[in-house]
Amino acid sequence: MTQRDYYEILGVARSASADEIKKAHRRLVRQWHPDRNKAADAATRFAEIQEAYDNLSDPEKRKNYDRFGHTRGPAGFGGSAPGGGQTYSWSSSGGPGGFNVEDVNFGGGGDVGSIFEELFGRSRRGGAGGGRGRGRSAAPAQRGQDIAHTIDITFDTAIKGGKEPLRLSRGHQSETIDVTIPPGIADGAKLRLRGKGQPSPTGSDHGDLILTIRVGKHPYYRREGNDIYLDLPITIAEAVDGATVQVPTPQGAVSLKVPPGANTGQKLRLTGRGVKLPDDKSGDFYAVIAVQTPKGLSADDREFLTSLGDRLQNPRHGHPWE
Fold first, then answer.
1. Helices marked H in 128-273 — which ranges?
2. Exposure string for 269-282, b = 16+ CB within 10 A, e = fewer
3. How far apart are CA 134 and CA 79, in angstroms?
4. What one-character DSSP code corresponds to residue 260?
5. Which residues are within 8 A (CB) of 95 and not within 5 positions of it... i.e. 6 or more apart?
């Protein structure tokens, strides 16, 4: 069967520069990568694109191809069958610790072999070395499937980090592994454990274990980004005159000064007392004032507050109240 022209495969002119060829290759890889394109001929097209790029990105091979085409030339040039260059293995999932095809950066030096070797890992091939072949084509090694799982952790573990045991079943075997939870992890975040997925049916690499983190509620803290909030109840007297109160934070109790005239909803900030991240950055801690209305007052106390209310300024004065 007549082979297609390499320039036609990449969709570039015969006068295309090396940079134009690289850009065309990058675009076509994103379009035809088998993990992204589920067409029946995607793997064949992908291998065809790789062969074309392998020959046109190498100045000497391109020179021989321009002169002799697909026929064997004096320098030993000859087009290999699609997929007859390096065999690649690919991951079926992106996410933290992995990648998506559309996110791959093909910039920098090196040939296509080194680029894909870095991103996908060298595929396993029969014969010594598992290196690049120039002869017969080999089917891509089939990597083990990834395992997706949800793991529940406490609010404190999410803030401070720690280890969580997880019972895992794979390949007809069960085992318990300790999952390291990094400090500051957020609800809904994903952790990728390399090689903890299903075994490969062809003896290649295991898949990965992809964990979705589900963080439990805390009885009195709530988290917004890397900041932590706590509702701080105070009495009317403390709100009027101010006070110094003890406030529980994830790092321990702290004395906090409530200014005179504090109102419900007012936020008092403790810098750096929020979520601590592995890069030594920290969020802040906010105590949100909640003035408590007294209950169970005696008749004398109630009479006093009533008389006091008559002397206080009406907070509902002006627009839109009047």
1. 155-160, 236-241
2. ebeebbbbeeeeeb
3. 10
4. T
5. 190, 192, 210
10 Å CB burial of residue 222 (0-12, 13-18, 19+) is: middle
Q: Are 21 and 115 contained in the same domain? A: yes
Q: Which two tokens mark 75?
A: 């320098």
Of the candidates 105, 120, 135, which is a domain's last residue?
A: 120
- 30 and 99 assigned to the same domain: yes
The confidence score (pLDDT) of residue 213 equals 94
Structure tokens at 90: 């690919």
How far, CA to CA in Å, does 97 sit from each of 12, 112, 218?
Answer: 34, 22, 29
SS3 184: coil
Give residue-wise pLDDT tens across range 291-306.
998 888 899 988 888 8
* pLDDT value of residue 131: 45
- Looking at residue 2, what is its pLDDT? 57
Residue 267: the pLDDT is 97
Q: Render pLDDT for 204-253 as a digit per residue (tens, 0 to 9).
A: 888 999 999 999 999 999 999 999 999 999 999 999 999 999 999 998 99
Residues 126-139: tens digit of each pLDDT: 444 444 444 445 55
Average pLDDT over every residue of 88-98: 34
Residue 196 lies in domain? 147-215
In this structure, which amino acid lies at residue 201?
Answer: P
> Mean pLDDT of all residues in the chain?
79
Instruction: Count how many Cα atoms sit within 13 Å of the Cα of residue 249 in the half-sphere of its side chain.
Output: 26
Pairing of strands 209-215, 147-153: parallel
Q: How far apart are CA 292 and CA 273, in angstroms?
A: 25
Q: Answer whether residue 168 is part of any domain.
A: yes
Domain count, the chain: 3
DSSP state at residue 321? T
Please name which of 273, 278, 225, 223 lies closest in space to residue 247, comparing C-alpha atoms.
Answer: 273
